[in-house]
Structures are given as structure tokens and as C-alpha cells.
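Support case: acetyl coenzyme *A complex. Customer-provided input:
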Amino acid sequence: MAPVGIVGLGAYVPPKVMTNDDWAEIVDTSDEWITAKTGIKERRIATDDDCTSDLAVIACEQAMEEAGIGPGDVDMLILATSSPDVPLSSTAGITQHKLGCHKASAFDINAVCAGWVHALDVGARFAGTTGYNNVLVVGSEVYSRILNWGDRTTCVLFGDGAGAAVLQEVGESRGLLGSWMMSDGGGAGVIEIPAGGVRTPIPSEGFDEGDQYFHMDGRAVWRFAIEAFPQSVRGVLERVGRNLSEVDLVIPHQANLRIIEAGMADLGLPMEKAFTNLQKYGNTAGASVPIALCEAHDEGLVKPGDLVVTAAFGGGLAWGANAMIW
Ligand code: ACO
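Agent response - structure generated as follows:
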């Protein structure tokens, strides 16, 4: 297969900032607790009118502009989300329509926080093949609308946002080297929205208890994440025949600074090699890696020839990583 790489990036977070102190006025929490446990200081919240597709559109438009392509040039649009506009139809299709990408096929991927790294792998397998010159891969989430605003164990952790990349065939010396993915559906209940699917349709008996909202066993996820993150990085490097010492930059899922610190220590890599922006945005789930990659690139931290590893972990359980030469 011809080498495929990212030729345009975009990211969007809503302007409304919600600080830890703002949360402390709503639930029994504090800036000290949230900062000490997670490193998060603030996050962005979408307006009531904004859907996941609206955030995706803005990130996609930026990525297309950077790639020098228009909506009519997009052949495929893959959207990673676990907070879709509606359960059915796909948010990818809604986004495709809003963008005017009329010739693109469009579909969603739900691997929760690891959604975009999965979408990048799928997109890269199409890009450059017959009929698929440009593939748009976007992660977009409006978690503020699926969270229980009365549950302090989850509501303070997340934020809203979107990140996008355009994939194209590129020169031999750069592009995606490969990906490594893993799932364990036995852990599906560790992070879930219990109601709203066909198992427990809404309205359900658990409606008053908030079963329609996001639930997470934080401790179980912690134990999973501190292993899944370094395992993903090692897994992809082994698959593409590279060493940890060759890695220039890791773009980890922005769930928790303590998880990133533990993972980088496990890998024997300094924290300077991990890009973080969760302090400003919290955990934007499937959008966190492309937002972070876009911001790292904008800050000049991703340079031509660099070996960049993007790694994510979360609900599913699902985890994985991509390795690319920039
Ligand atoms: N403010 C103040 N106190 C709180 C808060 C809060 N926001 N949330 C929980 N507490 C309390 C608990 O009630 C508990 O009190 P208790 O001891 O009186 O019972 C105490 O703090 C400790 O709670 P724990 O849940 O044991 O805290 P822990 O040290 O495990 O930290 C955290 C919680 C930050 C959520 C951690 O477990 C974590 O980061 N887990 C991983 C989460 C994650 O990374 N998720 C990403 C995937 S999500 C996805 O895929 C969409």
C-alpha cells in the first residue's frame, strides 16, 4: 500500500470555559481535589444549540483548509464519537451533509476514548486506494450532555470539543507506519451509559437514578489505563519495528495527567515527550487525541521527520495507538 499521512489538521473547542471552581458551586468538589487527582483546571462546554456534528464541522473545515481541499474533494468521512447527535442516523452522515461533502461515504466509529485512533487506522487503509483520495477522520464529543451533572465522580472530568485530520497518499519518507488496537468487551460495564439502547430502552425504570447518563468505575478504569496506555505504545512500536528511544513525541489520550505520568514512567520516557492540554480542556473522549495533535502541531512541537505516537484508552474497553513519521 502507498504511504498515507495527515496533510491537514483542525480542532475546535466551544468558547464557554467552565473552571474547577465553577464545578465546586454545583457539586461537592474543589479545585484542589480535581487538580491533585487529574491535573484538570478547566474544560469547555458547548451551547445548548450545539450538537456533536456542529463541533465536528468546524474542526473538519479547518483540516480541509490546511489540506487545501474543498468539501467536494472528500471521498470518505469517518467520525469517532460516543456522544452522537442521535442514536440513529450516524453523526458522520449529519456532519457530511452540513459540510457539503456530497460524494463522501460517511460512518461513525464508537470505540469511546480510543475512537479516533481506531478511525485513523481505518481511514488510512482506504486513503490512496481507488476512489478514496481524501479521507476525513474526525473525533467529536459533547460529553456535557451525556454526563450526570449531579455525579461528582464523573462530571468534573470531561469537556466538549472536536479534532479532525485529512488523510492522503504522501511521499515514501513519511506517513502512518501502522497501528495497534485491542478490545476487552468483558469490561464494557466499567464505563457505560446503562439505558438508552435496546437492552434498557428509555423511558426505563432507572431513569430517575440517572441510568441515561454516563457511569464509570473510576478505580477500575485507572487500573486498566495505567497498563493500557504503555501497552499500546509498546504494541505499535513493535509492530512497525521501531524503538522507544526513537520516539520524538507521544500524543496520549487526555484523560488524566496522573495516568499519563504513570504511563510515561513505565515506558521510561520523560514527560517532555508527552504533549498534554487536558489542563485546559479536560477529557474530551474521542476528540482528545486529534485536538492535542493539532495543538502540538500548531505550537511547532511536531516537526518533519519526527516519529509521533498517538495512544488512547477508554470505554469498551478499547485501547490502541498509531505510529507515524511526520
Ligand atoms: N471531588 C471531591 N471528591 C471526590 C470527587 C470529586 N469530584 N470524586 C470523587 N470524590 C471522592 C470519592 O467520593 C471518595 O471519597 P470517600 O473516600 O469518602 O469515599 C474519594 O474522593 C476517593 O474517590 P476515588 O474514586 O477512590 O478516587 P481516585 O483516587 O480513584 O480518583 C479518578 C478518581 C480521578 C476518577 C481516578 O480513579 C481516575 O482517573 N480514573 C480513571 C478515569 C479515566 O481515565 N477515564 C478515562 C476513560 S473515560 C472514557 O473512556 C469515556
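The chain has a mean pLDDT of 96.

Case will auto-close in a few days if no follow-up is received.
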